[in-house]
Amino acid sequence: MKRYSITVMLHVAGIALLAIGVYLLVIHRLWFCAATVGLLLLATAVHLYRMQMVQMRMMRRLAESLRHDDMMLSFRSPYHNRPMEEMADELSEAMKNFRTRVLERNEMEAWQKLIRVLTHEIMNSITPILSLSETLSEREVNEHNYAVMQQGMRTICRRSKGLLEFVENYRKLTRLPAPVRRPVSVRELLTDLCKLYPEPYIHIHVPAEDITLHIDRAQVEQVLINLIKNAREACARVKEPSIEIGTATALSWECLIYVRDNGEGILPDVQDKVFVPFFTTKPSGSGIGLSLCRQIMNRHGGNITLQSAVGQGSCFTLLF
User: What's the pLDDT at 9?
Assistant: First the structure.
């Protein structure tokens, strides 16, 4: 950055000296020399302008990446210019350090949330099993108590199956296969979704200009199906439900696909927990759908974000 500051100062000083030179040459009517120095003055000014515009583009990319929570950004100077290359390297290094600290913090928070959820779910299953087992072990085995003991054993069996199902869901999260990436047309992907969801209140906007993504189509399609399923459930009590799926404007190296509904929305204190494994607000939910969605997007080098307001609906955005 210091070298860049010196370069800018030299450009400014050069412009000032060349301007004075043009003025003196014009006074002495040395037109050819004045025109030559004038061209040098123009070239120096243009070069300084281009350097500043490159810096502005870098700052704009940095701001856009932070706004979209895109921590994978790296910078590269378009010119073989030592000061600009140093600035690009410094910005890239800063983003790398910031990304490492965001990932470490998010990983720690995710582990803490996961441990809390696992502890809560396991304790909810183990506690009644232990209590009921102790109660049954204290009873005398006879014909009068047989029906009660049989009912208790059924309860233990049911809760044990529930705990086994919970562990099986956890295995699904930890054994997600690595994505097999291939070029996929976004228009084709959304067109096929139209065939799956012909309901009139589900509006799938196919983009006019096609975009090609290198993704695992089956996994990303599963993400969209999960999000549409959640949107349909969120709109179940709405008189005029509406679900929209489409692409949004993003940076030149990004693609956004959104799933928006006008359902009940999500409470603010719950929004940061919806991606936590096994957390659910539904009576019959498993709490792994959105967790799988985030895991799939992370394995694609992307992200999934949520914007929601109670009574107005929710919008999930996939960032590729």
Answer: 84
Which amino acid would we find at residue 84? M
**Please, are residues 263 and 241 in contact by the beta-carbon 8 Å criterion?**
yes
pLDDT, tens digit (0-9, with 9 covering 90-100), for 109-145: 766 666 776 676 677 667 777 777 777 777 776 777 7
Same domain, 312 and 190: yes
Contact partners, residue 306, CB within 8 Å, separation at least 6: 266, 271, 274, 275, 314, 315, 316, 317
- Same domain (yes/no): 242, 143: no
Structure-model confidence comparison of residues 104 and 182, the more confident one: 182
The span from the CA of 148 to the CA of 127, in Å, is 19
Residue 247: closest CA among 188, 314, 200, 296? 188
Which run of H or of E encompasses 243?
Answer: strand 243-248
0.85 surpassed by pTM: no
Domain tally, the chain: 3
Say yes or no: 50 and 117 in one domain.
no
